[in-house]
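stage 2 :: seqdesign
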């Protein structure tokens, strides 16, 4: 069974990564030394906390198994374990990319998520 994890990313930055064939991380990822991801249970809170009201975002679903041992689950908000990738993100891990628009209530409108 495939386990998906999620990355919220500005569309322009993701399109650059697609052209390059890999994603090196957003500025916050580069500063922290790893690429931040969320599980299906965490991604909506991540959007509210770090991307509130931001338009022009994409939601990227990734197959965590493709990322191998460079992916580590580590404590973050309130002790919850979040997936962090120590290395570049290969495009081979991407399962789908969908727009993450802001709804009329100011919250992001998520596509259906899989755990």
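stage 2 :: out
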């Amino acid at each position: 069974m495939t386990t998906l994890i999620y990355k919220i990313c500005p569309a322009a930055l993701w399109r650059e990564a697609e052209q390059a064939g890999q994603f090196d991380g957003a500025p916050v990822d580069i500063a922290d030394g790893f690429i931040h991801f969320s599980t299906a249970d965490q991604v909506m809170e991540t959007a509210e906390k770090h991307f509130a009201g931001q338009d022009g975002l994409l939601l990227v679903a990734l197959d965590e198994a493709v990322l191998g041992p460079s992916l580590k689950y580590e404590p973050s908000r309130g002790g919850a374990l979040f997936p962090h990738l120590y290395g570049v993100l290969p495009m081979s891990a991407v399962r789908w990319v969908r727009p993450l628009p802001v709804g009329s209530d100011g919250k992001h409108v998520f596509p259906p998520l899989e755990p």
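stage 3 :: structure notes
- Helices lie at 11-20, 27-32, 43-50, 64-67.
- Residues 11-20 form the longest helix (10 residues).
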